[in-house]
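Reading a protein record of the kind used here takes only a little practice. Think of the row as the fold of the chain written in a discrete alphabet. A record is reproduced here so that you can trace the correspondence yourselves:
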Amino acid sequence: MERKILKVYKPGAIVEGIYQSCGDKFGFLITDEFHEDVYISKSDRLNALNGDTIEVKIIFSYYGRHRNEGAVKRIIARANDTFTGTFKKTRFGGEVEPLDAKIPIIIDVLDGDTKNAQTGQRVTVKIDRWPGRRSNAQGIITEILGYEGDAGVDIDTIVAEHRLPHIFGNKVLEEAKSLSEKIIPERNIEDYRNLQLITIDGADSKDLDDAVHCEKTENGNFILGVHIADVSRYVKKAGELDKEAYKRGTSVYLSDRVIPMLPFKLSNDLCSLNANKDRYAVSCIMEVTREGKIKTKKITPSIIRVSRRCTYPEINQIFEENIISEELKPFVPMLSDFRECTEILRKERIQRGALEFDFPEYKVILDKEGKPLRIEKRIRGISERMIEDAMIAANETVARFLKKTGNTSVYRIHEIPDNDKIKNLRKLMEVCAIPIKIPEKVQPEDLQKLLRYVKDKDIEYAIQAMTLRSLQQARYSTENEGHFGIASTCYTHFTSPIRRYPDLMVHRLIKDALTKQKSKSEREKETEFLVKAVEHCSETEQNATQIERDVTDLKITEYMTAFVGEPFDAQITGVTSFGIFVGLENGAEGLVHVNDMEDDEYVYMEDTMLLKGKYSGKTYHLGMPLKVTLVKADTEKKELDFIIGELKSPLDMFNEQNTKTNTKKKKKKLKNKRN
């Protein structure tokens, strides 16, 4: 991380911020304005832990290594009170050492609070007494995860470290169990059971929340229907299911499991749009013109009945290989209309500047014991794009509908890119001699033009990666600020209420707009809730994304342990002052540390974003192909270490060492002669 220290404080000044731990030795105070603003030694950290909000008194300041040094005077707020660690029995009960090296404490557990944990087991522990200068923290074991090496414990540990709720309480399960399975036609609920509806999902999907139908009209336009499971029918505001769904915010999809937002009774049964079952839905019926313009026909609660559950591979076979099963033949005319319609939608979206990244996705396949068997590359085919196009169209249509109500709503926003990050992108473009200009007020079409230019070139991955890094993170908001990546002026999330709480809120807002007239005080109360909820849901989404990434990194690292010592073809995906990051064809990424680049002394050239040999002039840059050898796979840190080239045999290493020794002797002899 780039370190910026922009201010020197006066000795005695009091500063507030976040404590960033660097292990047991020292840490930094992070303020809103500056990064690593104040150095804090081990003896001056009081009992602050990583992430805590603290108050620091400046001890002294100078224009030296740290500029500001301070001592923690007060802990304003604790970041966390629950940690994951390894349990060890003691004569008084036990103690837990956190797995996170940034939490360098020991937590004592009294005999009655151990839950009968055994030495060596991984546990979660909640602190009820914080550490003092001469005393350990004290806590209570809340969950026993199991022994390291047990099936699933490694992922259980990651889930626990991120404090992800993953067990449904009795009240939640009882409320789910009490729900009626009867589907009863009602007034103001459209009946679409006569339509030829299908779902298209992955073969292993169980929470099916979207169904589609499409038909071409006489004037050449299309009627496109997107029908979404009506979760709001079952999950009522302030109920036990609702409170739990809000807390979780989203379902989390990991290598060996799904941690659902809702109990399986709803996610896999009552709400899932299973074939040949009547289901409640919220339907968005659109007319799509030949130019890709969308007219809203109807947004309404409905009853539907899916005629066929389809999978991505079998639909791809129809359009990519002309392989059609007998069972699917009756659906081919509708599917052909659907494909034509979505191609028009995609073309219109691209014309207005929507960005399309072509990063491959990878899935680690595990055995029954949770051990990785292989890494599969996910290829997005025609059917995946068809569903994506239909869902984007429905999300935009619903967002425009909600905006017209004039009431506070939930939007999915993606703000314009950060200027500093765009500068880095421009710098890389200059290094790569790309003859395209990115203006100060960047628009989606500017970046789209860039991505088109580098398509299928050696630098494509590097430019795509830097472009992605320059973008803001999409989030939820009650203010409509548009979606930069999709080049949309109004966007929301409507299509996945089984697995995303914001979509559930949107369904409720649709029903309110169709049926209710709320008072001013009711609107104000709802706005207050929505403002808080969108921030919470953005946070739970980020947490879920990080957990999914951590689990994937862990399993990829575990898979690669079998290949330590083997060479691979790679591409440089990042260049830093401490080395180069490389990516393999199977999705694995790791670091070649600059200290392991022994053929020269390499210097990071910030202006040109490359590493350059001080004596040889050899350079390493983004996108450059390399032959590398894996030398370490650290599953604890989820990190892979590589060296450039292939490992040398013992004989080659011996000869190389002799050559170096002889060269040194010759240089010394020559120097002595000159003297």
Summary: The two ends are 47 Å apart (CA to CA). The longest strand covers residues 294-311. Residues 61 and 68 are 5 Å apart (CA to CA).
